[in-house]
Every structure is written in C-alpha cells, then in structure tokens.
Amino acid sequence: MLSRTASNLYWIARYMERAETSARLLEVGARNALMPNIGGGMRNEWESVLNAHGTLNAFLDKYGDPVQRNVETFLFFDRENPSSIASCISAARENARIVRTALTTQMWDAINTAFQEVREMERTERSALPLSDLVEWTLRVCALVRGTIDATLLRNDGYHFLQLGYFIERADNTARLLDVKYYVLLPQVSMVGSGLDNFQWGTLLRALSAHRAFNWAYGGEITARKIADFLILNRQCPRSIYSCVSGITDHLDAVARGYGKSSAAQTQSRAMLAELAEMRVDHIFDEGMHEFLSRVIGDVNRLGFAVHDTYLSGDIK
Amino acid sequence: MSQYFNEMFDGASVRPPYSTLEHWAREMSADLRSLKQSEAEALFRRIGITFAVYGEGGDPDRLIPFDMFPRVFSAGEWRKLEAGVKQRARALNAFLADVYGRGEIVKAGRIPAHLVYKNAAYEKAAVGFMPPLGVFSHIVGIDLVRTGPEDFFVLEDNCRTPSGVSYMLENREIMMRMFPHLFQESRIAPVEAYPNLLKRTFASVAPQKCDRDPTIVILTPGHFNSAYYEHSFLADMMGVELVEGQDLFVSGDFCYMRTTEGPKKVDVIYRRLDDDFIDPLCFRPDSMLGVPGLMNVYRSGGVTICSAPGAGVADDKAIYTYVPEMVRFYLGEEPILANVPTWQCAKADDCKYVLENLKDLVVKEVHGSGGYGMLVGPKSTKEEIEIFRHKIEDRPDNYIAQPTLALSTCPTFVEDGVAPRHVDLRPYCLVGKDVELVPGGLTRVALTEGSLVVNSSQGGGVKDTWVMAE
Predict the structure, then answer these.
(1) E-strand spans in B235-325?
(2) Is B263 close to A316, i.e. CB distance below 8 A?
(3) pLDDT value of position B370
(4) Which residues form the DUF403 domain (chain A) (predicted)?
(5) Which residues of B touch A161 (CB under 8 A)?
(6) What number of C-beta contacts closer than 8 Å exist between A and B?
(7) Is residue A192 scored above 50 in pLDDT?
C-alpha cells in the first residue's frame, strides 16, 4: 500500500488512542473533585491530571489556575491544544478523510460521525454538557471506532499499521502516566499506607481503566509492587507495557511476513519484548522506576521512528 | 404561462416520463418531505460528500444542496442525446490528435491557426506525441441545456478533468435508499456501471510498454482540493490507489509510487490536476503538486496520462464555436447537437454587436469556469453591465457572448411545495478502445427563483437524473 496511506492509518489510531487517554484523565480528575479535600485538595489533583497529560505548562500559560471548567475546556474543546479530544478527533478524521479508500464504510462512518458530533457539541450550551457525558461520549466513540476496525476491516497491511499506531501510542501513554505518578509507587515515600497513597494508587489504576481488573488479578492488599507489576509486566492487563510491546511485535511480524522482508523495527521490538519477559518487579525497583520508565519511553519512541523509516516515509532503501 | 419549457408539464397534462413522479410529489406530505430531506442531508454528511467553494471562506464541509425531485428523460430523448454526445466526444479527440500532429484542419482553413497554436491551452510539450489509441480526452463532460421538447444545445465541452460524476452516482444511491418504491414502479436505467467502465477505459489506453495488468492510479492535488471527495470516491469504486505528487517519482524510463513494500511501477495516471502542475520540470517550476520528470516518461511511452496534457485546447471557449465544423471535417457527419450561437469579442463585428446588446446577452471569460466572472445581462444592474463593458473594451479577446437561453425547468422542492427551477445536464462520455456513455449524468439546478446560473459555486444544487429504460 502507499506509504502515505499507511502513515495516515497509523496516525488515525494514535489520535484515537490519545483522545481516549485524555478522556480517562478527565474522568479521574472529575472523580477526585468529588473526594474530600485532602493532601492539597482537588486543585492539586487537576494539576496532576494536566501533568500526566503532559500539557500542564501550556494550560497554565493560557488559563492560569486549574479550575475544573477550564480544564474541561482545555482537555476536551480547545483546538489550540493539539492533545484535546476535539483536536484528536478532528485530526483522526482528517487523516481518515485522506485515506477514505482504505477504510470500510462503517469505520469511516464511526470516525466521521464522531467528528460531526464534536462540531455539534461545540455549538451546544456548555451547561447541557456535564463532564460525565463528555467522558462517556469519548470512550464510546473510541470503542466504536476500534470495534468497526475489529469487525469490518480486512486483515491486510493497513490493519496492522492501524494496530501499530494503537499499541505504540498506548505503550507511550502507560509509561508516561506511570512516570508522572512514579513517586507514589516508591517504597520510601513517607505516606505509605496512609489514606493518601491508596487514593493516589487508585487514581493511577483508574486512569488506565484498570481499577477493577487489578482487584480481580491480584486481590488482597494494594501494594506498590503489585501495581508496578500489573501495569508494566502483567500479560493479562491490556494496557501494561508488556502487552503493548507484545502487540507491536505481533503486528510488525505480520507486516514482515506479508512483505516477505524483515525489518529493523522488528528486531528492536523483539529485543524489548524479550527483556520485559524476563524482567521481575525487583529489577525495576533496583534500576529505579523513573530511570526504567525513561528508558521505556525512549525505546518506544525509537520504535516509532523505526516504523516510520521502514514503512511510512516512502524513502527508497 | 411561462416562456420556459417545463420538462414535466405539457400545458396542463403531465409528460409521460414524469407520470409516476407527479403523483409521488402530490401525495408527499410536508412532514414526510422535510423528514426525507434531512435524512438525505444526514446521508450525504455521513458519506462525506462536501464541497468547498473557492473564495467564499466559510464552511469547508458545506454540502451541495440535493433536490429530491428527479429529472427524467424518456428512452427516446436519451437515444438522441447519447448519439450526439458520443459524436462530439469522437470529434473533439480527432481534433486533438490532429492539432498535435499534422494540423490538417488548420491547413484546410476550417479553423484559424492562431486560435489553435497561440491558444494558452495549446501545450507545446505535447506536440508530436501520439498517446495510446490516439485518445487525448478520456472523459468528456458535455454541458447541455434544453429549451424545448427537441431542442438541446451544447453550452460547453470539458475535455480536461470534468468533475461531478460522484454526484451522479451518489444521488442515485441516496434516491434508491430513500424511495425504493419509485424504482420498483418505474424502470430506470442504472448508472452504477460507470466506475467499471472508467477503469476499463483506462486499462485500454495503457502504454504499449506495459506487458501485464496495468497499474492505474488517480493523481489528486490533495485533500484540500474541493473535489477531493470525488477523487477518493472514484479511487475506491475502481479499486485503485489515490496518490499525490509526493507519492510518485520518476526513475529511468518509468514512473513509480512509494509503497510500504518499496517502489511500484505505475502505468496509467488519471490526473485530477491541471497541465501546469503535472511536472515542475516541464511546466510551472513552483508546483509542489506534480511529479518532476513525468513528462519525459510520458513522451517516451512509459506512462499514460489521462487526460493527455494539452487536451484543454479542445474545450477552450474560443475553439467551441468550431466543434460542429470538427464533426463535419473528421467524421463526415452532420452534428446531432447544436452549439449555442456565440459571438467572439475578438472579432470587431461581433464585439460591436455584443457591446450594443449587453443587457440581453450572457458574457463569459474565454478561459473562465465555474460560473465566475460572467455577466447575465437580463439579470444584472446597469452598473454591473457598465463594469463589464469596460472589461470587454479593455480585452475583447478575453470574452465571448451568447444569447440568454430559455433554459428548461424541472419541478423542484421549494419552501412551500414544488416549483419549476432551471436545470442543465452534464453527461460523462468515456473514450478509450470504445466510446461509452452511462444513461444518466449530473443535473444541476438553479435553486433561486428565476436564476439561470446552476454552478454549485454559485448556489446551485443537484438532482438525480433518470433515463427510463426501454
């Protein structure tokens, strides 16, 4: 397929996944806003939501104090914020429009309808759009788009490039969310065992839609080790770094098989997966959580570049 | 009674092709109508057919208004149109092959040499090269108007890249989805074969050097182009890649596209950009849209470009006057479809007449399109007419004039029911190994009461066009 088409597909997936992450962060913030004012209170929590989103400074420059309504505007509606849900869905739709021919009608329909609905919401009185509706809507359209891909798209190379986009974005998002909150997981934090860190851990799990899954998988006391294990190494958790890298590897393998030509990206992701497969939580704490996560973010980034160089740039090799 | 020919009514009686529709429209309640209208709009939006209007700013996702009342031709009417359109398409192609070759028609004195060779659309880079099968214009869009039961006139020819065919196909899809019973009750000739015929046309003009199933692509200026939807729609319907200039490159004697598996040779390019932008090495050096070196590959027979560079000289408004002459000269036939009488302001006598009669005439720029820069005398104010007078006096050779035609009307849904609105027709004739025309076309309708300008860039709408099966 055209390199440019592959690139558009890949970015559709990345934008959709990014929109979903933004929505989940909004949900976390909203939930925290309902909690009693502890440890700096909810203002602090909106700040950490923005921090996890990687857009705190951009927000402060534009809006000043992180009050809920502004954060909502910024993360959902603001077109000047490239990671806002409206921006992501518009960008996904723009990419989809360009490669209309590589999509099924249902998939285009799902993305285009989402875009039309965003425009409709932009024209709607804000009081008619409670945060919970915005979040629910986003999660629903993201699920719908994923569902149409799953149910209607041919399993050809285009499908694999879409999946690569999803997994690479998700690996990056999980690593970043963990990194922003990594201090909560450190054993030496003085508040261990207090109400606060339980609360913070809950926040982290919720931000990854893994709150209840965690309880099913581990049960018993919530500990930092369990959470780190769950979100980094667990093979059942769909957003764990292991699962993401495993997905990347599967789809790179599928592409290479289809083209009858192995790639540098494939070698890189296999090496990453092999390391994660052997790893224990102790290794991560020994290396230092932040150091480990920085390494993962860098590796995922390089993997993205390798995919781009090999398949998406169209440069002759 | 109105001076305009109404395609549905003959006096008080309904003309036969419209009989089912008359009943259908009469029985439709206002509620149902607005329900169906918004359903149609939602369908268009979901499919993604939108039309950006140049120079208007505003919503790039604006829809072309769709009028649900179909425009109908009887089988007999269509037979004549079909023969006329095919004849014209053959003559235009013969003309192109001639003027980029030996120039017999000029030597015979049937067309003035300067109109051809000094024409801005005459492409020197195309001289002396005969494209496969001698076809230059593979899709000929012929704009027709009707003034009476038997009176059809060609308003203009489009030999480069006529657009709008996606509306012909989608309008039909939407009508079939919304009013299936109409299609059960009447026998309406299908148009859905068009993409297949188009692909077959392109395959038939693959370069001789191509020794396998030809790889066909559509070359688009990009997704900001107002017709991008159509480019992507046609690529999808034909199952071919939609490429931009950056996706193609020239190496050695051939043109390739960049794919995830490496370079892939391209044999036929259906380009949807103007000659000027095809190859920055040959034409405009500042064009970012084209493919450097493409013209060399084309001229050495490595790739077929559809329509061929230079095809535009045949649809120039100054050449238009001579198309009936082409039919006689190349085909030895009498033209089936008539031209609209045209005055060339470049000729002193004509210009004098035009300036004296501006209030009754339609004046157009020779190279204009899309309904821009034209004057509709009877619908214009004194000031507008005076402005045009100066323009014509400044550059007479830039203008032609035609009488204001009494365009036929077709019933159209309006605010408070059904009313006649003026329409035109663009059928799309395919020229390759065979000359083919699907039974249908794009009907454009001037939605404003009394307006004669049907261009979508000027607030026109579209209708489904039916040809009754025999």
Answers:
(1) 241-243, 248-251, 254-259, 262-266, 268-271, 304-306
(2) yes
(3) 57
(4) 1-312
(5) 260
(6) 63
(7) no
Instruction: Please tell me which of the candidates B45, B229, B258 has its beta carbon nearest to residue A116.
Output: B45
Q: What is the pLDDT of residue B371?
A: 61
Residues of chain B positioned with their CB less than 8 A from the CB of A97: 48, 223, 228, 232
pLDDT of amino acid A185:
58
Q: Which of B46, B48, B243 sits opposite A97 (nearest CB)?
A: B48
How far is Cα of residue B183 from the mean position of the Cα atoms in its chain?
27
- The answer to whether B19 touches B8, Cβ cutoff 8 Å, is no
Backbone φ and ψ for B140, nearest 5 degrees, come out as -110, 115
Supply the pLDDT for residue A35.
Answer: 66
Confidence of residue B54 (pLDDT cuts 50, 70, 90): very low
Comparing C-alpha atoms, which of B312, B299, B303, B302 is closest to residue B126?
A: B299
3-state DSSP assignment of residue B418: strand
> What is the DSSP annotation of A118-181?
HHHHHTS-GGGS-HHHHHHHHHHHHHHHHHHHHHHS-SSHHHHHHHHHHHHHHHHHHHHHHHHT
Token pair of B157, please? 């020819």
- Tell me which H or E stretch contains B465: strand B460-467
Q: Which domains does chain B have, with CATH numbers?
A: 9-207+303-336+406-467 (no CATH), 208-302 (3.40.50.11290), 343-403 (3.30.1490.270)
pLDDT band at B130 (very low <50, low <70, confident <90, very high): very high
Residue B137's closest CA among B310, B354, B342?
A: B310
A4/B258 CB distance under 8 A = yes
